[in-house]
Amino acid sequence: MQHKTFNEALELILQSDRRYAREAYVFLRMALNFTIKTMKKPDQGPARHLSGRELLEGLRLYALQEFGPLSKTVLADWGITRTEDFGEIVFNLVGHGVLGKTDEDKKEDFACGYAFAEAFTHPFLPASAKPSPKKNVTRKRSRLTSTKDKP
């Protein structure tokens, strides 16, 4: 089903599915453009296609750029609390002819992409609150001996 404009399609989506705010769809569309530019994808053609994982990372980066430490809060206000929500929005837009997809694309591509708490709050934690990277630590073995072992 093709629609003349994004706004026409969005009106129809919002009439049938009220899970996500209008702003969530507008955000996704802007984040999609941001991701295509960031990844230096061509303006047209099949090479422009993004995988679900690529789009998820672009959505995360765009949210952090636009909303900073409030990213998680803003997205939650729009009904987005997990990566699967992005998949639902994408496929609502696909179903109304706003976005295209390949035969391999599916909603499940957006499942368990990242934990929102970590993805949207971790970058703003002070260094002292972030877990330190694991170091390759070699422990010395100590040998406990009893007095019987000593000559």
Order of helices and strands: HHHHHH
- What's the domain count? 1
- Helix coverage percent of residues? 40-55%
Distance between the termini: 90 Å
What does this structure look like?
- There is one protein chain.
- This protein is mostly helical and 151 residues long.
- The protein has one domain.
- The protein has helices spanning 6-16, 22-38, 52-67, 71-77, 83-95, 116-121.
Main features:
151 residues; mainly alpha; globular
Topology of this protein?
Layout: H1 6-16, H2 22-38, H3 52-67, H4 71-77, H5 83-95, H6 116-121
Helix pairs in contact: 2-3, 3-4
Concise account of the structure shown:
The protein has one domain (6-129). The protein has six helices and no strands. The protein has helices spanning 6-16, 22-38, 52-67, 71-77, 83-95, 116-121.
